[in-house]
Amino acid sequence: MHFEAEARWIAEAVWNLRSGTCQPAHYPNDPVVREVDGIARLRDVTHLIMVTTSTKLDKAKSDVKKLNAAEAIERKKAVAVSKWLITQSQLDAQHIEYAHKHNVTVLTLEQFKQRFLDGRSYIAKREVSSFGSARNPLDNSITISDDAYVPLPMAVIEHVSVKGLKSNRYEEQRRPTDIAGLANLLQKGSIIVLLAPFGAGKSVTTRELFKYLAQDYRNLPGPTVPICLNLREHWGQEYFDEMLERHARSIAFTPREDLVAAWRAGMANILFDGFDEVASQTIVRKDDINFMMESRRVALTGVRDFMTKLPSGTGAFICGRDHYFDNNREMEHALGLNGKNYKLIKLDEFTEDATNQFLKKNGIDTHLPDWLPRKPLILSYLIQKNLLSEILEIDASEGYGYAWDSFITKITERESELERAVMDAHTLRRVMERLAFSVRSLTSGNGPITGNDLANTYSIETGQPAGEGVLAQLQRLPGLTQRDQEAGARSFVDADMLFALQGGAIARIISGQFDTLDKIPLQALSEPAINMAAYLLKKDGATSTTPMATVQRLSREPRTQTTAQVTADCFSVALAMAKEDDGILDGHGTTIDSATLGVLDIEECDLKNVRFTDCLISEVLVNQRLVDSGITFQNCIITRVGGISGASSLPETVFSKSCEVQKFDDISTNNAVLQLDIEPQVKALITILRKLYRQSGAGRKVSALNRGITRKEVESYIPQVLDLLEQLEFVRLFNNVVHPVRKKANRVEAILNAPSLSQDDLLLAVRAL
Predict the structure, then answer these.
(1) CA–CA distance from 281 to each of 181, 229, 336, 442, 714 (Å)?
(2) pTM
(3) 584 and 606 in contact (C-beta within 8 Å)?
(4) pLDDT tens digits for 487-528?
């Protein structure tokens, strides 16, 4: 009965019928047929189906006889009749010959499916097409060798309840997995959401998962074929069928409608690469600070259509940038996951061993400096441009800003020395910084940059039109890569480089060297960009009063959406510089209005007299001095407030009732850490790691590590824990500044997410102090 039901279900899908349309048919007045297992009446043809698990010739003859009798009845009212005998196992030639003499088509259920989707043909065409941004690092082509994949660390994220002093809290537990684990989940019908930083290898991972599933299908064709869509090629598409047909057209698969029929029939697992690479037409509205969230929701309408119509038992894989959505709740709503059980997977950068393996596969036998990202995309870029040896010469012991300033200087100098180069290194850097600033006005955050954008940016920076030689050089600017969905368009190749350039742009705005603010930034200035701007300003002798002076100057100018956001950017730089100096910043009544900000760390900085109105803020870290600080938040949406246990504890003199706080965190401030039910030396460890690793790329003065710690028993452990961290190579010290070690970031994140549950060797060593 189950086999018959599956055959009818497949028939409904391949003939595009409503569910339940294909049903058994009874002929009570006919002594021969009595009943057929399925009948599907279309406008031009009626399909008669008999289904059997038997391989006996007598049974086949009996089923053919029934189909012939039913045909005689149906021909009185149907234009044409088609007869099918669907079997569980392959029949002998004698059976098939007998059926064919009576115009009955004999197929196994698997062959019945294959008649409407040639899975092997699809796989052959798909695997030679592009997979998102995955490229051969040697020639930037889409042709990648089968053994090019280097495993990236990935983990299934689960949350475990842990009892604390005041209430239960949840710690993040990571269960390692791999490509085979993902494939197993998909084949069981699971929904998988994979998150990773920009450039960390999402497309390469998607390609490897497709290859794994495709090989399984080739070895033993099963019920599902992997179908993989690059979402960057489906801007503006709202329905699953138009997306599948466009995908089929792009890889030259025919008939195109077969993919639609196969997916409807549950014969395919769907893989989506790059939910962060689709966009919609966005209108910036000052009266609606949720417009970015709405833009993301609209852009992913097509994905939601897939997910809301997902056939039972069919798997789906979706990947994208980890910071694309504000929170998991928005992600679930935008992707159509509400009410669905899904597995959340996080993909990390290369481990040190994997980095070395990747380099060796590309003919390089060397070790990378700690500051350089372990992302396949940027490593491929450096290899392709033959720049890696020069980058290895950078002495990064002076910190993030120094390293990336030197990095950008080297690549622009190299580019300016190439044959037929027109722009000098200084002009190249200015153009790249302005481009980096301009892409903040795009929903993707990194492109596309059109040819007109390149030419206009050059003209703004130099006051000269872009001639033929300049245009040629603009098209090969370092750090940019082609975008598949728009001919001639470019995107930034790596987030770290993009953020460093954006920091340079903000530093130039503060220094008065950056005019024509005609782009409206849609996103907050990132932590690395803030650090880069602070470094460049300090390099020129500036203090936190310098960006605050720019904040006050912009506040006096006519308010536009652009100046509102740039004012917030400059304020963020001032706050970061103050925190690293004396920890004091007076806003003198400044209002930050209608802007987007990242983390407002006012726990360790004595910030005073600032008003935030109509802002979207990712996190506010507070201290006990907040009530008397002169800081107020009005009509703001705040994703997370750290240091406050819940809405009832929000001081109304600071947070007006018009504010919306989506989450409270009991471990995101020093004071909250001190309240945890763990050993004092572990509290000291968590405090240090938070300050170093939760602020991307930032070093901290040794003296700043004690700031905010009010308990002597915890403070007394700071020197011992710091020495241990240095011995175990979790930190490096230079000129009394402590720097995080990038290759330890994954272990640190696991410790911070589960300090009570983690059995990391570092935690064990700290507990033994």
Answers:
(1) 38, 22, 20, 10, 52
(2) 0.72
(3) yes
(4) 567 888 788 899 999 999 999 999 999 988 888 998 899 989
